[in-house]
Amino acid sequence: MDDTAAAIVATRRQHILDGTDVTQGRSLEIGPLATPILTRDMGDVRYVDVVDLAGLREHYGTDATVVTEDIVEVDFWLTREDGTVSTLAEAVAPDGPYHHVVASHVIEHVPDMVRWLQDVADVLVDGGSLLLAVPDRRFCFDALRSPATVGQVLQAHHDGDRIPSVRAVYDYARTSVEFPTAAAWAGAWPPEQRTAPLDRARTMVAQQQQGLYVDCHVWPTSPVGLADLLADLVELGLVDFGVERITATQRGHHEFYGTLRRFHRGRDRHVQAAEAVAALAGLRADLPDEDRTWPHQVREAELLEQQQVLERRLARAEARLATATAARDRAREQRDRARRDRRRARARARGLAALVEPQRTRPAVRLVGGVRRRLGRLRPGRG
């Protein structure tokens, strides 16, 4: 892993863990592949995935986004030798309980979200944390898909889905598009050209019908969408988690983060559920509105950001203007004071001159008078 990739992993780890001290207690990471959020040197860490290491390397052998040599050795896997799939709790409970469960880009894949959350709750200690990183459907290949609904989640749970349903497999295969995150944030419309042709979708559905695990995004969602799903599931009594954190998707990114806290088994569940629903309402209210038509929401966000930049610039300009005005007023006051001082100095000088001038002129007048008298005596006709 080069320095850039390592920095990206470190940043994601910081966002996902959000200060959680994983050195305390045992931790389980689900689906770590080649870039685990938790490394074994961070504490008592276990890994679980759908298949074992050999199966993972075979499955991702043609995936350019996964370095198969870096896929970590998993401790537990869900697929049994006979090809059937166990639940998460069945696979990992004997090694539990766990204080922390980390799931990066996992919850959107699970066939039965309710059962999965129940399994995680079963293997967590009271107050244990479930730390999530979830792709935002608006900024990835799910951009054309409708958001997952509570009804779909309940149906999957009612049907006891152990593999992604026909609905999930077909919708995923038929609607996926090449939609880079940068293009989405730039306000582009998702392309109409689908990633897989109809024949590919038909093949994937046939594989599902044969009982094979066809990996796909079962639950496309967003921050507000996940908050709404969890609020109903908690209130319906299906999920024993409170939600401490659901973040908005950061600009330029394609995922958001959540922290769920397992209810205490010794406390009244109805009280804890009411507290959790109230807390979720507050979290949801703080999330950006996602109801407006895409991509106008992005463009509105850009305009809002530009407005905020201009407002900050205006505030700085006004502050500089106030400083310059104050300096000008001080200079003007100093100039006016100097003028008043000069006028007073000139007035004092004129007053002194008025006092001194008579004293200077009297001797001169007497001298002139004497000279004139002498000249008069010297004129002809006078003796």
Radius of gyration: 41 Å
Question: How many domains, as an integer?
Answer: 2
The biggest beta sheet, please? 7 strands, mixed
Shape: elongated
Low-confidence stretches: none
Q: For the largest beta sheet, what order do the strands appear in spatially?
A: 3-2-1-4-5-7-6
Count of runs of 4 or more consecutive helical residues: 11
Task: Estimate the strand proportion.
Answer: 5-15%
Please write the CATH class name of the largest domain.
Answer: Alpha Beta
Distance between the termini: 134 Å
Q: Write the CATH fold name of the largest domain.
A: Rossmann fold
On the 0 to 100 scale, the average pLDDT is: 89
Percent helix: 40-55%
Query: How many strand segments?
Result: 7
Order of helices and strands: HEEHEHEHEHHHHHEEHH
Query: Could you give me the name of the CATH homologous superfamily of the largest domain?
Result: Vaccinia Virus protein VP39
Which architecture of the largest domain does the CATH hierarchy give at level 2?
Answer: 3-Layer(aba) Sandwich
- Report the structural category: alpha/beta
Written description of the protein model:
With 383 residues, the protein is an alpha/beta fold. It folds into two domains: 292 residues, Vaccinia Virus protein VP39 (Rossmann fold), CATH 3.40.50; 89 residues. The protein is 49% helix and 12% strand. It contains eleven helices and seven strands. The protein has a seven-stranded mixed beta sheet with strand order 3-2-1-4-5-7-6, sandwiched between helices. Helix 6 runs antiparallel to helix 8 and helix 9 packs antiparallel against helix 10. The chain is elongated. The N and C termini lie far apart (134 Å).
